[in-house]
Design a protein that fits this description.
alpha/beta, Rossmann fold, six-stranded parallel beta sheet, 37% helix, 15% strand
Length: 240
């Protein structure tokens, strides 16, 4: 039965370097979160690069959030219990979504949940060289994806690269999960520190022993199951 105040809702933004991935590629996590939390999970099938570079994916995610706020969902939603979650490139889009909504003075998600996000940090970050040849995602892969998503001068936009934002005040509370062996590790770490410096709330999950993309290994590695446990705990706290 539907909760009295409407359904709590997760807006899920999938990863894949803004180039690959769709609703099917990430149903392993969206269906799991819906079942475990008994909430509505709405995944966005945003347009992909290189056919549709920035800001297409960002615009699609923003349009989906705004449609939910305008009552476009066939389900009644609880306005106070909606948050945005994304992995990898989806974490980038989730952070960008929050920046854009704050800048526009619109309704913000209750939280932003960023799972090994790529936030547009510089090539000189230590994790880029330390994890250049890490499994599943190397630094060369990163550069290739970013070049396809951000081919033009828009790559200097904070909605393309949230770490370029100079003011991180007034943003939703964050849960940021890193993977230890990931060239993007320092992106999430840096964003966490900057949110705290801006008097924001952010919880960092260091992801020791994890690699980029490890969400797919649920039930196969205790380190991954521990990440899922922390993620579910955080989400329950936000939606409770």
């Amino acid at each position: 039965p539907m909760p009295a105040d409407g359904w709590p809702c997760l807006l899920y933004l999938h990863g894949g370097g803004w180039v690959v991935g769709d609703l099917d590629s990430h149903d392993f996590i969206t269906a799991y979160l819906a079942a475990q939390l008994q909430v509505l999970v709405i995944a966005v099938d945003y347009r992909l690069a290189p056919e549709h570079p920035f800001p297409a994916a960002f615009d699609d995610c923003l349009a989906a959030w705004r449609a939910l706020q305008a009552g476009a969902s066939p389900f009644a939603l609880d306005a106070r219990r909606q948050l945005v979650i994304g992995d990898s490139a989806g974490g980038n889009l989730a952070a960008a979504l929050c920046l854009a909504l704050r800048d526009a003075g619109e309704q913000l998600p209750a939280a932003q949940v960023l799972l090994y996000p790529g936030l547009g940090g510089g090539a000189d970050l230590p994790s880029r060289s330390q994890c250049a040849d890490a499994p599943l995602l190397g630094s060369n892969d990163l550069d290739a994806y970013q070049a396809l998503y951000l081919p033009g001068p828009e790559r200097h936009s904070s909605y393309a690269r949230p770490l370029l934002a100079t003011d991180l005040r007034g943003l939703p509370a964050a849960f940021i999960a890193l993977a230890q062996f990931d060239p993007l590790r320092d992106d999430g770490e840096l964003y966490h520190q900057r949110l705290l410096a801006a008097d924001g709330h952010s919880q960092l999950y260091p992801g020791l022993g994890l690699v980029h993309g490890c969400l797919r290994a649920r039930g196969l590695a205790p380190e991954v199951d521990a990440l899922y446990g922390a993620l579910l705990d955080y989400l329950r706290g936000c939606l409770g």
